[in-house]
């Protein structure tokens, strides 16, 4: 870290800072200028207190971090891309991965017909919420364990891998018994106990970005999972809250590019929650490909008008198949297999 001392600080105040740095367990290297001194402090922050508290001293102007706070997620810790193998489906490699399915698992007929349709269109992973985080307690809350059984049956019938959301720490074991990937939703993206419990399940974890999370906070949430021994983290951008109301959320494609630059983790885009409008999903998928996303999470329902959740943003199977066909040349232009 770099400790910047205010210009014209008296020598004894500079010495006090240097002493504090040593006492906190770091090795100080002062660089004394004509008016101002800066002190480089070398040491392991994971085992010593952060030097940021030194800003409490009036003679300290700023403390700057040299290393990223998300040590394990950062590209510096691992220059090569992380490729996650989910039962043969590789996420983060050359293939552009399609995860698709209904917002909520509603019935056997609904899930099976969607599963077969998305598979035929090129998806390799089936999405579907059995536990739903709904804004109102009076809205459909998901089928729970029954929904997990239907997901397992759909995997059996189609060979698709399963991604489904886990809402609470106490459900992790049950959901992990069925899911190939655990989804942590936007509303839970900083539920640190849940992140740790998912990490310990050993299953790959797809971490949505919280609706008001900065990129650094999102990457630090991923860091929780990595730091608790699970290297298989997939980041998912799903839009953030802004003042704009033509869309449900503002899909932040810049954040996708930044996450790809900053980390070695796969990054997926969810254009469905990202805009909340079926008519925009297709073009946003193209945007996702263009900024370097590793795949998509798209909501598909056999009859969106009758969906029990998020009908306004779900595609019917035909629209999804059309989307994939039209996306292929874009993916190939971006050197991704689809
Ligand atoms: C969903 O995928 O249906 C969902 C609830 O997503 P988010 O957590 O991004 O709102
Ligand atoms: Mn949804």
The helical percent reads 25-40%
Q: What compounds sit in this structure? A: phosphoenolpyruvate, manganese (II) ion
Mean pLDDT: 97
Tell me the series of helices and strands, N- to C-terminal: EHEEEEEEHEHEHEHEHEHEHHEH
Q: Uncertain segments of ≥5 residues (pLDDT<50)?
A: none
Shape: elongated
Q: Beta-strand percentage?
A: 15-25%
Strand tally? 14
Structural class designation: alpha/beta
Q: Strands of the biggest beta sheet: in what spatial order?
A: 7-8-9-10-11-12-13-14
First-last Cα distance: 44 Å
* CATH level-3 fold name of the largest domain: TIM Barrel
Total of helices: 10
| Biggest beta-sheet profile | 8 strands, parallel, barrel
Q: Any idea what the CATH superfamily of the largest domain is called?
A: Aldolase class I
CATH architecture of the largest domain: Alpha-Beta Barrel
Radius of gyration: 23 Å
| Total domains | 2
CATH class of the largest domain: Alpha Beta
Summarize the structure in short.
The chain is an alpha/beta fold and 338 residues long. The protein folds into 2 domains: 2-64, Alpha-Beta Plaits (2-Layer Sandwich); 84-333, TIM Barrel (Alpha-Beta Barrel). 34% of the residues lie in helices and 18% in strands.
Structure notes:
This protein has 338 residues and is α/β, with parallel strands linked by helices. It folds into two domains: 2-64, Alpha-Beta Plaits (2-Layer Sandwich), CATH 3.30.70.1140; 84-333, Alpha-Beta Barrel (TIM Barrel). 34% of the residues lie in helices and 18% in strands. It has ten helices and 14 strands. The protein has helices at 11-23, 108-121, 145-158, 172-178, 192-201, 215-227, 253-262, 271-275, 278-290, 317-333, and strands at 2-5, 27-32, 37-42, 60-64, 84-86, 89-91, 97-101, 125-127, 161-165, 181-184, 205-208, 233-237, 267-269, 295-299. The chain has an eight-stranded parallel barrel, surrounded by seven helices. A four-stranded antiparallel beta sheet has the order 2-3-1-4, covered by helices on one side. A two-stranded antiparallel ribbon has the order 5-6. Helix 2 (108-121) packs parallel to helix 3 (145-158). Phosphoenolpyruvate (PEP) is lined by residues 103, 129, 133, 185-187, 208, 238, 270, 273.
